[in-house]
Amino acid sequence: MKIIKVNILLCLLALVLGSCEDFLESRDKGQVLEEKLFVNKEGVEEAMYGLYYTIGAGELWGAQLPTIMDALAQYLTLGTYSTENSGGFEELMLHNHESERSTTLFGGIWTLGYKLISDVNKILENLDSWGYKPLKHMDLYRGECLGIRAFMHFELLRMYGSCNLSKRGIPYVNNYGMWVTPFSTTRECYDKVLKDLNEAHTLLLEDENLLTYPRKPVNAYDQFTSYRELHMNLYAVKALLARVYLTRNEPGDVDSATMYARQIVDSKKFPLPTGANVGPDHFIRMMSGTVAQDEGIWGIYKSDTYSALQSLFLLEKGSFLAADEKMYEELDPARGTDHRSNWIRVPSASTPEVSEKLGMRLMKLINASVFNTANKEQAPIGYSGSNIIRVPELYLMLAETLIEKEPTEALRYYNEFISSRGLNTEESITKEDVDKQFWREYLQEGQYWFRLRRRQVPEIEVEPALANAKGIKTIQMDENKWSLPIPDSEFEFREDGSY
């Protein structure tokens, strides 16, 4: 027993003396969910960190998933475009979902998403039958698990499920085991997502005090309550509730979405940049391989985002470029300067020749100081990782949902947002204005395709280089285009081969 106590004290001392990054590094690893973990709080927390590791995997929010969704939304083009070096991405961008490239990518997301859900259910099963020393943070553990389970199901639902509430959704898996879970309708899936989120909301109320602004320093003696923006926290759950209600759009849902969005924005825990921070340097540093220090409601810690992203965006040939290099330019200089333009720029490389060769690149998520160690002044601010939910979404949601009922309030939220991006305030706005700002804000974050899906736009304009190469100007959207294909393997163990 003395040896155990000494070891614990040594660990705590090392944590106190070490840097915050060192502590976070110790969490950045995968963990097999074994029975031996679930005997004490250290084991439970190790399993919890394993969930976040999976969310940040390259196939999910670490790199591929947002890029795939942006390709579908026609945000991207392939450098030195040709069908020979495209790796099949042109079929993905054209919404030819049955192509080999598309089915491989979509199948990987589906499989890893349900593995995450299985791991969540394993933890919940052990927490529900807990027979060891009482856990101080039982509510936080369960709340985070339920929030993650709802989040992953909702993401899969709005990728693979039907837009029609009465048609096929996805299997909503809330038990750990090998049996086959039947498909639920889209409406039933929404009900189950909301049930999990509402329970998570109740369990995570402690975050009202734990997640503050300015952020609290790390608590070396109670590590799990530190860095709450890197956990599925109360405000992430509120943001998800707002997303889900706005997407479902049943009677009363818009009001519910507005309520939760207001709670987050009005909490002032996730401030937009103001004053000296509204400038080009801040917009280079706030998103470059980091969880946005102030605006990040929830992000995933990853010690190295650069290696996962550089092959997607920095190769001389074949990497993705912005479909519209000038998307942040204003025709009227009087409207101000959009500092998000620094998210598409010529990277500052070790030599001018390399920079010139690369040309304009998507640099929003790239750590410029890793790309070139001479770029010290462009080092990120915040913790290394990937953003999942940022507060601009909620400002724009409020501008959209209040534009008819409370136009003055809608304009206030909209102006607060665009001012933080360097643009001058407006005297009136339309839903098209809000949509334009969302389009500008969420490049490389995989959210705009879901916005198009929610609005059920009848067609999507094909990215110009691809349109010229294929002779296809627009994609006519329908149920099959909006619902990505579920892997064939999902139906192997169903008696009639169907859902």
From TrEMBL:
Pfam families reported in the protein's UniProt record: SusD-like_3
Signal peptide: 1-21
Residue stretches spanning the membrane: none
Residue ranges occupied by any SusD-like N-terminal domain in the UniProt entry: 93-209
InterPro entries on file: SusD-like_N (IPR033985), TPR-like_helical_dom_sf (IPR011990)
Alphabetical UniProt keywords: Signal
Gene3D superfamilies (alphabetical): 1.25.40.390
SUPFAM superfamilies, A to Z: TPR-like
Keyword Transmembrane helix in annotation: no
Record flagged with keyword Signal: yes
Protein name: RagB/SusD family nutrient uptake outer membrane protein
